[in-house]
From TrEMBL:
Organism whose genome encodes this protein: Cirrhinus mrigala
PANTHER family documented for this protein: CHLORIDE CHANNEL PROTEIN, H(+)_CL(-) EXCHANGE TRANSPORTER 3
Protein name: Chloride channel protein
Family: Belongs to the chloride channel (TC 2.A.49) family.
Alphabetically ordered keywords of this record: CBS domain, Chloride, Endosome, Ion transport, Membrane, Transmembrane, Transmembrane helix, Transport
MF terms (GO), sorted A to Z: chloride channel activity
SUPFAM superfamilies: CBS-domain pair (SSF54631), Clc chloride channel (SSF81340)
One Pfam family from the record: Voltage_CLC
Gene Ontology CC annotations of this record: endosome membrane
Location of the protein in the cell: Endosome membrane; Membrane
């Protein structure tokens, strides 16, 4: 059954968490005199809740896959309504994010965007401007040269001239006329609103 990434990640984490919870429950039942269980668990008492381990495991697995942190803790809190479990949820989600980041900085959604070749500017990366404007936009043979905006030294009169003399809907922004390094793109609508 196709169910995306969200539900299977939570299910796998919940299964793994419940297995750990049952194992700890059995340890507490048979070895109640260990120093871990001596102060909490009385003989025959139910002091370990495997469901809590399942909930924390689901949040940890989903946090490792998607690299969500605060929003994921809030989602799981809203699902369960258990305010007393916020601290274990936070610890599990942050630990899973750190472990995931040790293997790679991107989550599953960023990886799919990159694999499909969609344009995506990731805030975690630094970009160096090495592209020239003529490599991105080229005028036709009989057209005038590119109408470009420079990054720092354009006057308001020059901007108004470019707007009135051309019919383009957008203009590449370059560092200077000499270097022609592309640093952005400005829409005609945004320029007219700013003027």
């Amino acid at each position: 059954v196709p169910s995306g990434l969200f539900i299977p990640s939570m299910a796998i984490g919940a299964i793994a968490g419940r297995i750990v919870g049952i194992a700890v429950e059995q340890l507490a039942y048979y070895h109640h005199d260990w120093f871990l269980f001596r102060e909490w668990c009385e003989v025959g008492a139910d002091c370990i809740t495997p469901g809590l381990y399942a909930m924390v495991g689901a949040a940890a697995c989903l946090g490792g896959v998607t690299r969500m942190t605060v929003s994921l803790v809030v989602i799981v809190f809203e699902l369960t309504g258990g305010l007393e479990y916020i601290v274990p949820l936070m610890a599990a989600v942050m630990t899973s994010k750190w472990v995931g980041d040790a293997f790679g900085r991107e989550g599953i959604y960023e990886a799919h965007i990159r694999l499909n070749g969609y344009p995506f500017l990731d805030a975690k990366e630094e970009f160096t401007h090495t592209t020239l404007a003529r490599e991105v936009m080229r005028p036709r043979r009989n057209d005038t040269p590119l109408a470009v905006l420079t990054q720092d030294d354009m006057t308001l009169a020059e901007l108004q001239n470019i707007i009135s003399e051309t019919g383009y809907n957008g203009f590449p922004v370059i560092v200077s006329k000499e270097s022609q390094r592309l640093v952005g793109f400005a829409l005609r609508r945004d320029i007219t609103i700013a003027i």
